[in-house]
């Protein structure tokens, strides 16, 4: 098998041309990061924070890359525990409590603990046993309408998952108005200990991730009644991707290209590929991430994908109890998808 390292190194060179060299990827990230830093003071004065996410933020410039953005109100604070309410100034801050009892893992309800002065939040509230909860469905609709009113170019804006989706120039933009939390979700607390045991990511990256908190986006699990929100780790994922070496990043790019150009099945999305790579990096510290091992590590990721499809189970990296295949990869669709990827394997 001596030809495999040489072939792998050749693929590495080709992927650098397709995806970018280490310097090119670093420059792309620096441009986005600098743009955010420059705009942050102005956005804070407007009462919002804005974060680019997705492939564009990670450093890709693939033909299929779109732009993903997350917006959240500066003065609306989501907490995970009632004891955290003392950290905020009321009425300057609107405090919202996560509740996840009797909900699928990875999802939460949001209970309004203090008054809100945001018209979209107020109009999105529903009464539940005498308490005010923010409906993800109403919140999403309000933000979509707000986007349509911003400019004529946005009037074609439509709902796409938790986002308002529209075309700007030649690119598709997914814009998600969400709510931010300065706290790491209690549901994901075991992830911290797992990272320390597995030694990935490094302690510095892990501490930065936990300090940065998380978000909740207005989308629920399948067949919910419209008041569930999904806990989002987009900021943590971006930091994990930034912490990868270039071979790991190119393996991620190879998985994305393979998904789009070879598998080409709408059931699967690139988020599953990223999740697979996170698990492979963390679970097997013996893997060598150098150009000569790019293909063997890609192969390991592909075999894990097949295994997950066979089991109809894709554990979320931060909350493994959240099986992201629970609704999408079932029944006849699962069988057809497994046959497809197994044939590719053969």
Describe, in short, the structure shown:
The chain has 346 residues and is of the alpha+beta class. It has helices at 3-18, 22-45, 54-58, 119-123, 136-150, 189-198, 203-212, 234-243, 246-263, 270-283, 294-311, 331-345, and strands spanning 48-53, 67-79, 94-99, 107-112, 125-128, 131-134, 158-160, 163-168, 171-181, 214-217, 229-232.
Gross CATH architecture of the largest domain: 2-Layer Sandwich
Please provide the ordered H/E string of secondary-structure elements: HHEHEEEHEEHEEEHHEEHHHHH
The CATH class of the largest domain:
Alpha Beta
Low-confidence stretches: none
Question: What best-fitting shape do the alpha-carbon axes yield?
Answer: globular
Terminal CA distance reads 18 Å
Whole-number total of structural domains: 2
Record the strand order, biggest sheet: 2-3-4-11-10-9
Overall average residue pLDDT: 93
Task: State which percent range the strand residues make up.
Answer: 15-25%
Largest sheet: 6 strands, mixed, barrel
Measured as a percent range, the helix fraction is 40-55%
Number of discrete helical segments:
12
Return Rg in Å: 21 Å
Q: Find the structural class using helix and strand composition.
A: alpha+beta
Q: Give the CATH topology of the largest domain.
A: Beta Polymerase, domain 2
Total strand segments: 11
